[in-house]
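Issue: ligand-bound run for EPU - logging full I/O for the record.

Environment: standard queue, default settings, no custom constraints.

Inputs:
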Amino acid sequence: MPLSDLARITGVELRENAHLAPLTSFGIGGHADLLIIPKTLQALESVLAVLTARGIPFRILGKGSNLLVDEGRQGVVITMLSAPGSIEKIASDGPGRLITVPAGCPLGSLISWSLREGLTGIEHLAGIPASVGGAIAMNAGTPEGSMEDVTEAVLLVSPDGSPRWIPSNAIGFRYRGIDIPHRSVIAAARIRLEVASDPAGIARAIWSTMKTRRLRQPLGKKSAGCVFKNPDGDLAGRLIDSCGLKGHRIGSAQVSEKHANFIVNLGGAGFSQVARLMDLVRERVFHETGRTLDPEIQIWRRQAA
Ligand code: EPU
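Outputs:
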């Protein structure tokens, strides 16, 4: 591990043997051999350059809210969550306001900021527990729209450490994902919002989104959000529900009684309990409906010893 090389970089916090479970919304997971927390863009560039030059693989952690982590060792993990930086308005042609947002900014903070500024376009994303970078990487969204609708460009730091702005039509947005070069890191995003004609409507829309979410989703429980993607023309939650799986448990992992496409950690659930419950759900849904469910959540398997 090039600890000394990394320790020489200004603006980087290094944590050896860092416990990952507390950094995920599931509360499940093992240890990063090394957790790297770059605090500036320059620090991120230098970190990527060192890791790439030495051929050291790494993973990127956002807010850990769409992630199931195995209990084993997870190698080198970079997180941008502590990266400072503020939301900035930038001059641009075109409608509305163009802003630059650091990748580590919580999506909820961006939504609160846009409410204060009277800007509209992301109210329906309220309650998604992601960082802006993570939300873009997953093209997070709802049936009303997703991150691709408002993202104009992302600042990608490539494995050799060079940063460049990539326009959204070159990011390969798709349903719950994007296509960016392997091991590139999203450092910031340019988001275009509209000036609201009725600013009070923004608060109403956020409130209504949160109310629906609280009614339909097990928000107070440890989970990683929707576990499976909605298959073409159907809804994963409806399919799982139709198989009578709500409430089904393996150990402390349970198919939510509120929303069948959530698995909740009732306390002390391990990776294998959740993984086995996901397999059971997929098999049962396939057997009873003929539909194949693909995971929406990211799964980090343990690294070979
Ligand atoms: N349904 C059931 N049983 C259930 C759950 C849902 O029958 O247990 C049926 C109902 O008919 C319900 C319909 O499915 O009306 C749609 O449910 P919901 O509105 O919850 O939408 P969803 O398609 O299940 C999607 C996103 C959610 C997002 C909601 C916002 C995916 C996989 N999920 O859920 O995103 O919060 O819309 O409405 O696209 C996530 O990405 O982690 C996530 C939770």
